[in-house]
UniProtKB/TrEMBL annotation:
Family matches, as InterPro entries: HTH_MarR-typ (IPR000835), Tscrpt_reg_MarR-type_CS (IPR023187), WH-like_DNA-bd_sf (IPR036388), WH_DNA-bd_sf (IPR036390)
Domain HTH marR-type stretches: 29-166
PROSITE patterns, A to Z: HTH_MARR_1, HTH_MARR_2
Source species taxonomy: Bacteria, Bacillati, Actinomycetota, Actinomycetes, Streptosporangiales
Pfam families: MarR
Protein name: MarR family transcriptional regulator
Keywords for the protein's UniProt record, in alphabetical order: DNA-binding, Transcription, Transcription regulation
Length: 170
C-alpha cells in the first residue's frame, strides 16, 4: 500500500479516541512514540522475512554483521560482542554456542589474555554475511521508498538517539 497524505493510520485513530475521551489531554506525543513502536514491529517482521531466506533470525544476522564490521578477520572478544548486543553475558554465551553449532562462528582463547575468548567468523559465516548484505540493503531501500527524503528522518532520529545518550556501539 502506497502512502497517501489523506490517509489516517492506526495511531491517528488512537489519538482521536484520546481526544474524545480525555479532551483536556494532548495526545500528540503518541504520534511519534506510537508510530516508532508500531514501525519497529512492522520493520522487524519485514526484515526477518528476508533473514529467514537464509535460515537466520535477526539476532543471528546481527551478530554475524557485527563480527563482519570488525574488519577482514571478523573477530571480536566475547566482551565486545556483549557490549554491541546489549544482552546478558549468559545470553551472549548461548548465542555464540548456537552460531558455533551452525558452523558460522568459532571461538578461541585470546593468546594475549587467557581469561578472554575471541569469537570470529568461519569461512562459511563470512561468506553468508557477505552474500546477504547487498540484498539486505536493497530490502531496506525498498521499505524507505515511501519517504521523500529518508536522510531527513535519519537526521531527526539521530538527534533523538543522541539526546537519550545513544552515542556508541557499546
Amino acid at each position: 500500500m502506497r502512502y497517501s497524505p489523506r490517509m489516517d493510520d492506526a495511531v491517528d485513530r488512537m489519538m482521536e479516541q484520546w481526544r474524545t475521551v480525555r479532551p483536556e489531554l494532548d495526545p500528540s506525543p503518541m504520534g511519534v512514540f506510537g508510530r516508532i513502536s508500531r514501525l519497529n514491529r512492522l520493520l522487524e517482521k519485514h526484515i526477518n522475512s528476508y533473514f529467514g531466506l537464509f535460515g537466520l533470525e535477526f539476532w543471528e544476522f546481527d551478530m554475524l554483521a557485527t563480527l563482519r564490521r570488525a574488519g577482514d578477520d571478523g573477530e571480536l572478544t566475547a566482551g565486545a560482542l556483549l557490549k554491541a548486543s546489549m544482552v546478558t553475558s549468559g545470553a551472549i554465551t548461548n548465542r555464540i554456542d548456537r552460531l558455533e553449532r551452525k558452523g558460522l562462528v568459532e571461538r578461541r582463547q585470546d593468546p594475549a589474555d587467557r581469561r578472554s575468548v575471541r569469537v570470529s567468523l568461519t569461512a562459511e559465516g563470512g561468506r553468508l554475511i557477505d552474500e546477504m548484505m547487498a540484498g539486505h540493503f536493497a530490502n531496506e531501500n525498498r521499505v524507505l521508498e515511501a519517504l521523500e527524503d529518508p536522510a531527513v528522518l535519519a537526521g531527526e532520529l539521530r538527534k533523538l538517539l543522541i539526546s537519550l545518550g545513544d552515542t556508541s556501539l557499546g
